[in-house]
Amino acid sequence: MTTGALIFAFNNEKTDYLAMAEWSAGRIRRHLDIPVAVVTDSTDHQRTQGFDRIICATPSTGGTRWFEDYASTVTWHNAGRVDAYNLTPWDRTLVLDADYVVCSSDLKTLLTSNTDFMCHRLAWDTKNGQPLDGLNTFGRFHMPMWWATVMCFRKSNTAQYIFDSMQMVRDNWQHYRDLYHIDRATYRNDFALSIPLSIVTGK
User: Fold this and answer.
1) For a tag site, which of 38, 80, 90, 101 has the least CB within 10 Å?
2) Are strands 3-8 and 36-40 parallel, antiparallel or unpaired?
3) What is the rounded distance in angstroms from the CA atom of residue 138 to the CA atom of residue 61?
4) Main-chain phi, psi angles of 134, to 5 degrees
5) Nearest partner of 144 among 157, 135, 132, judged by Cα
6) Per residue in 73-89, pLDDT tens?
């Protein structure tokens, strides 16, 4: 069974996500000892040498997002994550945000699990070790939030059902915003993951 990491890296007007992903790839190899594939629209060979596989794709825009660091609104190319199942070259895939910093071998535990799909349920405040209030549910009905920052899956019916459902949510985003009373207009991967997990697991 092949195992590797997958990172989506589409630059926008302000942020060089490809550079972040390349830096992250070095840390993934160092701590997890697995190859790294990048999904990008970059055709600059010099900028993609730091990856084991390059997967060319068209960026899928989920709207715009305000960044305080830039004091401006930028295009948010975040809607392609739902294609991870179809794009990955690996049998078992660890999907990470481009700016996720791997600092230990802890994620190796996921790579040896027999579970078809895994992700984080809670976000914690590193200052006090407590769950982040207001960030672990979403919408008017306080649906449980699952985080798409780190996902690990193996090729299986269960994982395919989840990703197919994520595509359904992405392609009908306004409908699901209305259904779950999500105030934020910008498409968000965490919501697009949380809704399918509820559908697939029945919880």
Assistant:
1) 101
2) parallel
3) 21
4) 85, -5
5) 135
6) 878 788 899 999 999 99
